[in-house]
Amino acid sequence: MARMANNSLETLRNIPLNSVIPSLWPGAHPASDGGRITQWRFPDGLKVNVLADNQGFVAWTHRVNGQRVNAQGPSQGHGALDLVMAVEGGTFQTALHRLIEGSPSLTRDSAPLPPAPQDSAAFRLPPRDFNSEANWRQVRRYLVEERGLPPWLVREVYEAHQVYAGWGHRAGGFLIFPCRPWDQQTVRPHGPEPTGAILRWAQPGTPPPDKYFGQTHPTAKGSRKDAGWWQIGQGRQCVIATEAPIDALTVYAGLHAMRFAHHVTIVAGGGQGGFTARQWTGFPTVVVATDRDAAGDGFDTTIRSQVTREQTVLRLQPPAGYKDWNEAWRQDVSTMMKTLQGGLQPALTLRRDRDAGLDR
């Protein structure tokens, strides 16, 4: 068995690097420097030089004192596994699974792998479509064309790395909404390190049974719901709890149209177990804007058990006749806006925003 495993690893190491790159990252484009090197340029700025005769590679995102440095992983290596770690980061084990799952035509002769171990201290986001144009088209088609959200808002959350299109056998067809511990300070431009992700099937019909990473709930495998959440806005007058990122985006769009968006923070729990006391800390008022159904009422009960005596809790349901906020937004935006304004009036000092841009 050990010999088979070694042979399998040797097969992976010897896969031509110029075949691995377009298979795993279709958004990368090759360019020649006129010598025996092929340079691949990735949409996020990464450059990878593949040496002739599969002798290895050099990867970098920037230069320091003339030296090429790769902030994402190894700056150089020899085989396909080193290359995956250089492009995506992660460990040898995650690179092994990524290579076999993402390049079945190149790795069909390799021995099957055991399930990837789950590191309870670290979460790895599902793979994204590295073709930036294709990724944006998928996000826009679903959130703008199907869900009716404003194009400017969808573009801003996309560019803020708050949503992207999944890629590969298991994540393909989903939109991925990274969850982060937003109560932590960070110097990262897009917020703290993700601790989980909420998934939304963005294709017609229902997802095949092998989707959702083998699960039936809308969170990526390995997500720690008690550690992070999806969030938009950073106003401090109140925090609004919604069940899903699309609900949060819809409520934000409505408040933006009324020029009140800068006064609130809106969070999305992602289903059962997705709300924690950390989300309400420091807010005088908590508005429970979950769905108009039994599950929404259950979330209301959960959240009320987590707040302090000094905090005010308000229940704000979508308009009568509509299950959730996005349904009301698409079918009767006027009634939806009146419901929002009336329900939030006790929680807000209604001073309209001067600049209603996106905060987070």
From TrEMBL:
Gene that this sequence comes from: orfL48
Q: Which InterPro entries match?
A: TOPRIM_DnaG/twinkle
Question: CDD domains, per this entry?
Answer: TOPRIM_primases (cd01029)
Alphabetically sorted, this entry's keywords are:
Plasmid
Highest classification ranks of the organism: Bacteria, Bacillati, Bacillota, Clostridia, Eubacteriales
Where is region (Disordered) located? Answer: 105-127
Organism of derivation: Sulfobacillus thermotolerans
Q: Which domain of life is it from?
A: Bacteria
Pfam families, alphabetized: Toprim_2 (PF13155)
What is the designated name of this protein? Answer: Toprim domain-containing protein
